[in-house]
Amino acid sequence: MHSTWGKRLCRGYLACLLALGSLPVWADAPIVIGTGGSAGVYLPVGKAMCELYRQATGSACQALTTGGSLYNASAIRNGDLDFGIVQSDIQYALSRGTEQFYDSGPNESVRTLFSLHAEAFTVVAKPPGIRNFDDLAGKWVNVGNPGSGQRATLNSLLEMKGETEDIFALASELKPTDMSRVMCSGKLDAFLYVVGHPSQAIDEAIRGCGAHLVNVAGPEVEALIEQMPYYGVTVIPGGTYAHNPDDIVTFGVRATLLSRKDVDEERVYQLVKAVFEHLDAFRRSHPSLVTLTPSAMVREGLTVPLHAGARRYYEEVGLLPPGSE
Fold first, then answer.
1. CATH of the domain at 124
2. pTM assigned to the model
3. Which of 46, 78, 132, 181 suits 262 as a labelling partner, its CA being 20 to 30 A distant?
4. Is the CB of residue 307 less than 8 Å from the CB of residue 270?
5. Contact between residue 183 and residue 209 where contact means Cβ atoms under 8 Å apart
6. Which of 30, 39, 43 lies closest to 72 in space, CA to CA?
7. Residue 12 DSSP SS3
């Protein structure tokens, strides 16, 4: 009788489970993933993860627009978010209580799920005479909002050079959605962006007013990479953007999905499983994800321990040996 009632009234497998009281507790709880601005890569990547999670579990998931890495890291630390996309350098600073998190001290509760795309420290300039980072001295430059990972990366580079943002004639704090428009109106010489490529904001500046990409290299960059485990040389291939045929050499981090130790293990397991078991669809969701591989996602750019739910999945499918940390 019970099954007959279910067959008659239910509409789909998930509805039946709900009606019959058979749905796991974790599946009822929606998850929220902190991402970034609407012109960046984090938001579409977060939406893709949510869609895979919804399809796999039937549970709600929201990709939340935020100020970026620093905001997401702080929100995860404070318990305002359970999941967020965070640059590997911000992840490192949060766990060790350095840089922006010096006053709050080390945080041993943060956990990672997997890494995502490489993110290049990218300089986009309009004046043709700006060919290298040092050419930005005395120029009008958008450095990004205070809650962004790009601001933190810029300050690390400037500190290595023994400089501050005072080297710029103007250091504006526009959001990514406004950078290209303001540059093309003649009120900016350049903007900085730590982002996966291709990027909508950068494409708009290049097509809209003939901007170009700038190399970021030299002994200070080499020293920064050597000292910090989360940085590495990054190349933006020539042809990624119109009228920019040459490779651009810079440095960068990796985007990572961050959480906390106390976040439900089963929910983390199901989110990781949804992404990895539909990795082809995930890679197709944005050009920055095309080169992702399971082995790299489990190992690269992860400067804090894996969440127990993520580690359980990786051990089950053989990506990590049993009992790994």
1. 3.40.190.10
2. 0.74
3. 46
4. no
5. yes
6. 43
7. coil
